[in-house]
Amino acid sequence: MQTLQLCTSAILMVTKIHCMSIPFDNSTESDILGTLDFILGNAAVIFQGCNIWSRMPMSGQFTVITAQSRDSPDEDIEISIQNCSILATNDLYSNSGSVKSYIGRPLRVYS
C-alpha cells in the first residue's frame, strides 16, 4: 500500500498542480487557486485545512478542481480533501449562474 503524503504549506496559483511533484511538509493550511484540473495527478495525497479557490474560466468553459490520472488497476492512489473550504473567486461567484463547476473528474481508464 502506498503511503499518503500531506500536500500543503504554500500559496499555489497555477493552472495545474501535479500532485507527485509538490513539496510536502508538516504544515496543513494552504491557498490553492485554479480553473481546470488544478489538482491533478497519479498519487496518494491529502489536502488538510486548505482554501481551494476556483477562478473564472475562459468564456464557454467550466471549472474542475481535481482530476485523477490512474493508469493501472493495481495503483493504490487517491486525492483526499479534509476540512478544506472550497470557494469561488468574486468574478466566478458573480457568474455562478452561467459557469458550471465540478469537484473532480477521471482522466485515465482506471481513475
From TrEMBL:
<keyword id="KW-0134">Cell wall</keyword>
<dbReference type="InterPro" id="IPR000070">
    <property type="entry name" value="Pectinesterase_cat"/>
</dbReference>
<keyword id="KW-0378">Hydrolase</keyword>
<keyword id="KW-0063">Aspartyl esterase</keyword>
<dbReference type="Pfam" id="PF01095">
    <property type="entry name" value="Pectinesterase"/>
</dbReference>
<comment type="pathway">
    <text>Glycan metabolism; pectin degradation; 2-dehydro-3-deoxy-D-gluconate from pectin: step 1/5.</text>
</comment>
<keyword id="KW-0964">Secreted</keyword>
<dbReference type="GO" id="GO:0030599">
    <property type="term" value="F:pectinesterase activity"/>
</dbReference>
<dbReference type="InterPro" id="IPR011050">
    <property type="entry name" value="Pectin_lyase_fold/virulence"/>
</dbReference>
<feature type="domain" description="Pectinesterase catalytic">
    <location>
        <begin position="29"/>
        <end position="111"/>
    </location>
</feature>
<protein>
    <submittedName>
        <fullName>Pectinesterase/pectinesterase inhibitor 12</fullName>
    </submittedName>
</protein>
<dbReference type="GO" id="GO:0042545">
    <property type="term" value="P:cell wall modification"/>
</dbReference>
<dbReference type="InterPro" id="IPR012334">
    <property type="entry name" value="Pectin_lyas_fold"/>
</dbReference>
